[in-house]
Specification:
40% helix; alpha/beta; four-stranded antiparallel sheet; 14 helices; homotetramer
Chain lengths: 343, 343, 343, 343
């Protein structure tokens, strides 16, 4: 069985396991105050070109979104998101669980547009009833999006400018950031993201780590008593070294970027295979997730040899599925996919 | 100045004030256990044709929505609503404050359609990722809607059938129910609503009372420990008699319906005046709220003599405003409106 | 049956009903922006000797406590209260429902002591683990307390000084403030309270109103977007005039104080009756609540003629009950009590 | 420097790292559905002697407490805990963050007594005002407690019987369960705990794992849609294998118990050293945490060579500190402690 259903069906990259072994017997203080966590923060600041950024580590993506969003929003505020945003669709209502509304705006292929955002904010702030409404207090974007698409530097700059104009922080969910940064069709570097966003997270779970995400407050200060907020939300790891060491490793010798690059190289190869096999794309993307359209008979056949993700029904007889590569995908796996794509 | 900006710019109907005076010196137990509250519940059950219904009183509409929805939803559930639903737009995120998501569906002129609802539920329940999503656990409709429109018996029956098919309670927000019931274009009686909905509220604040809404659990049992839930949400009035007595009065001698009928009669007269004056309707409705389109110059002129509600900008030069009648609107007020509508 | 079980078993004072009648037909804007609400705020500021205070109206005590406390606390903070505090015992967990802990300290007869508070704060702020703990972010006291007791000016000054020393707002729950202010054994005037506390509420429900409490921010600014916070918590009355007009009346011609004085005069008379009848006090208080100790046989006898509140079991054969007077208690009622107290 | 400040200053036991290496390249499904998680659940059920138990894995202790407690409590309920309970003191209000109160009862050396619990429940259920109060809906105990103490089988049986009598689930926090089970002064085996408690967790973080706790529902069913509840609270790990594999390892060949036994052996040796050095115990315990009393001069001296945890000030000149052993403590470390304990 070839596993292409997601980018977290693997363990960690070898370098991470090696360093876990090497440092295992050290006595280190807890809760992220260990030297590896501190070193990792410094390396991330450096990679972001943002020497004053504050960096914090959390265990997973949904947790990170809920902790960051709920600790930044004020009582009367909610988070603006594209309807398709992960926080709005696939996080089980974890933002609302913290007492805050998600303010949905229509997106295109997962992306929010600066124009739609600007119109909404203009309308909101001219509404005489706004004191009875949830105020937009943060803008959430994902990059890559849930559909594998990417913002251009121009697009993200426009969104950033709108946010700055209204004094609203821009937050970027980088669960798969490594693949976005190494896409062959992007002009957005990590330093651009750090500069355009107020806060964002660099995803580890899907890019080489066992678990862990690095939150970077590059444009605003982290909330006061952030450790307390993390603890209160059940998200503080006693052995913070576990995530700190992983990010220290990922940001040594550009490992994070090399892992992302591998995932992209595998994705490009997979796209070629799909094209060779004349499989119609529902959405062909510049990152590690590809969405294809299969007849339901093909779907059944494929499912005997390949694990994939169901995405949505296209019509009575067709289904959209997602195939994802990752830092761990092998050429053998893609060859097996090629062989399985004979209907 | 003529006040037509809303239906809560008045006091209470005379009968209510009279009975407050008459009963003022009585010593009565608190928290809604007084005899007037009990009598009111019985009268409401009778009017609903639902002798087993449980009735509870709360102070206001947003409070009622939040208490009812949050005490009915289970942990993994959210409330389905049209995008324009009052809970989704103008209640400051009070449902989300209780930790539950509102699941938006597109509506038409404020109304949810059974087809849209059915498609959504079908898709949700066939989604393999649904354990990571918020489950639809209640369907919210308002009647009249925020746009003054009404469901037909056939439409509400279809929605009710979809809900029953999925075992999801149907909840109707009747903030302006009196006007809906007495509309000249409705085939939905109170008993129909009690029969088709699982729970709904009969609005008092906008139909003759100083404050107060009556929640009717007609199709399901009220949640266990409901008094505790009300107290926990800060919504338990010590002098429950205040709301109980008002509803006892409103449901004596059909007063609630007569007040609604007055509001509708005034609305019909107002519509005639608007038509006479050739004022274009943005939305002409069968209830007590009318939405008209004015040039911004007209708007400025009108605002010197008439209080109205800003609704939305129509385009660069036009604005939509709302004019509302109520149980308290007088013919003199409408004549003054007529005079003011000369541009 | 004589009703002495509580101080909210009555309607409103005559003056309030009279003014409701007089103003009933006026068209007034909603949500507390009407002229009566504005006038009431001004009168309260004046009575408090605090011309810059911000005043807001809410419907009931539990609601007021939850709204004020949750909108003042920051994410990492909780509210300090005596164990016996109403918020900690009899509000169904409404503060915790907003996501904040109540930090219990032992009290004496309902009162918190400055020494206990100071020791706790000193210990907390020297605890190296405090980032894993809930920070004291507000101090809650009630006056009169749940046991009818009162702080002296010296005691409240000491608590206030401790709070100021730590930069923590002091909040006073004045559900029965009228009785406290008019007690014959108090040296705390309303202006003292306004000066010593940062925020407090003047209880209307138990002192002459149908419903309503007036929150006074005398030492700190009210939170930004407070109307939104009130709305979000389901506590915004559409017809804000209902509470505003009541407080406008209560603070005209010292009515609030005269009502309190009546309740105290009746309480003093009741204490005399209890002493005459040789009924042992569990707690004799300077306000309108008295706690007496009855043999269970006496209890049964009394309950045939008098309504009282069960307080707690004293031992196998004795029970503590509460008798409360109010602004509405009559001499006839007390005479009936005297007659019933024959065992 | 000798690190005895806590039991989570280490990495993982060798066997866990070895298995992470061995399985690293396997493609496994996410969210705890992998074969190692399933195998671990089976082994835990077997070790608990409870073949129908449901087992779930979470990342850390505070998270586990908040997820379990908030998903078991109903709207009107809170969790009963000793005042010293970890959830009540050192989890930053994470239970209250979910909207539920902690109902404090006095404990002795961290332990709740069945008598105190029974009296409280009896009093609560006879209180006529209980609908205005938070209902006890779960009893929380920790074993070992925060003070290193242990319940006897008789004590836990009594608490269990009280809980059963009131139909309230008993939940045991086993953050350090391995040390409790292997104490030389315990008669409580894992199977006893599974039998007496309704739900409990077996702590991994402090007993050999990098992270992770295993929740065992032995006496009640796990809540419906538990995965959704976990996701909603930000606690669902994408790579569930990380915790599953660790517990699979810990429950192979009694490793968990052997690790616990080592921690206890080291603790006994440390106690001997402390006694040899005539260091007064503040609390000598049967588990891996020991509390000693030092003069502040001694404290300063010791802190140059030994890391310990500040516990509390004993008086002006003395301080209580905690020294903890763990599965990773070495004899060399204890010898270094011995050498450092010369004042």
């Amino acid at each position: 069985m070839v596993s292409l259903e997601c980018d977290y069906n693997n363990g960690a990259c070898d370098q991470i396991l090696q360093r876990l072994l090497e440092t295992n017997r050290e006595r280190l203080p807890g809760y992220g105050t260990d030297k590896y966590s501190l070193a990792a923060k410094e390396k991330i600041r450096s990679a972001c070109g943002c020497k004053d950024a504050e960096v914090e580590f959390l265990a997973g993506g949904t947790q990170t979104n809920a902790v960051v969003i709920s600790s930044l929003l004020r009582d009367h505020e909610g988070a603006v998101s594209a309807t398709t945003g992960h926080i709005n669709q696939h996080e089980a209502g974890s933002v609302e669980y913290t007492g805050h509304k998600i303010l949905e705006l229509p997106g295109i292929h997962g992306k929010l547009s600066a124009d739609v955002l600007r119109d909404y904010l203009l309308q909101f702030h001219s509404d005489p009833n706004r004191e009875h409404m949830v105020w937009p207090g943060l803008v959430y974007v994902s990059h890559p999006t849930e559909y594998g698409t990417l913002y251009t530097k121009s697009e993200l700059s426009s969104i950033s400018a709108v946010c700055k104009g209204y004094g609203i922080p821009l937050y970027l969910d980088g669960a798969r950031l490594g693949y976005g940064l190494m896409s062959r069709d992007t002009d957005l570097a990590l330093q651009d993201i750090a500069s355009l966003c107020d806060v964002f997270y660099i995803g580890g779970t899907k890019v080489g780590a066992l678990c862990g995400e690095a939150v970077v407050f590059s444009g605003i200060r982290k909330p006061m008593h952030f450790t307390n907020a993390v603890k209160k939300r059940g998200a503080l790891l006693a052995k913070g070294r576990l995530v700190g060491l992983q990010f220290d490793t990922l940001f040594t010798d550009d490992l994070y970027f090399r892992l992302g690059e591998h995932g992209i190289r595998m994705a490009e190869r997979m796209k070629n295979i799909l094209r060779d096999r004349k499989i119609p794309f529902f959405l062909e993307t510049p990152t590690n997730q590809q969405f294809i359209l299969l007849e339901d008979g093909q779907l059944a056949t494929l499912s005997e040899q390949v694990s994939f993700s169901y995405w949505e029904k296209a019509d009575e007889e067709h289904t959209v599925i997602r195939l994802a590569t990752s830092w761990a995908t092998t050429e053998d796996e893609l060859e097996a996919l090629r062989k399985a794509l004979v209907f």
